[in-house]
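FIELD: query
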Amino acid sequence: MRGWWLVLFGTVGCAAETDNDRIVIGFFGIEGTRTEVCAEAGLLAAPEKMVPTAHLQRFDRMLQWDDGTGLKVGEYVIESQSFEVEQSVFVDMRQDQQGDELLPCTIERRLVIAGTLSGDEAKGFSGFEGTWSYVYVPTSGSSCDDLLSGDVPIATALPCTVAFSIVGQAQ
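FIELD: result
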């Protein structure tokens, strides 16, 4: 969980180009400003700023987002030049704890990145604006209340959301 706040370095970008059914949208340097937080400290705390990069391409209405942390696939709406990708990971919050007295606690971390591109496909996209959010939700049957108290609680409450307003600039 702690490794997901990697700072990624930019790469050289290109205008939209085609390769059979693939259309390269471009490489983007992204600046994100936090708009919502689960906690100011602890495991689910988030920095005020984030600066990843991403390579976007599409196949008809399917968008591929690659920010170096794994390929994410989502939907691209041609008419509005908007996109949304979503990815879920399930984390056993008790994996390092032992004892039969602890009830299970598994949290789904759902990443949702959504935005609208500016510019056009023929001349190349200049950037995009949107949101980047992580939604943390205990799975059915989980008991995570003890992780919300103590010396370093993971968050102030569950479910919770960490969100960023993002602006991408073509590189």
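FIELD: remark
Residues 1-17 have pLDDT under 50 and may be disordered.
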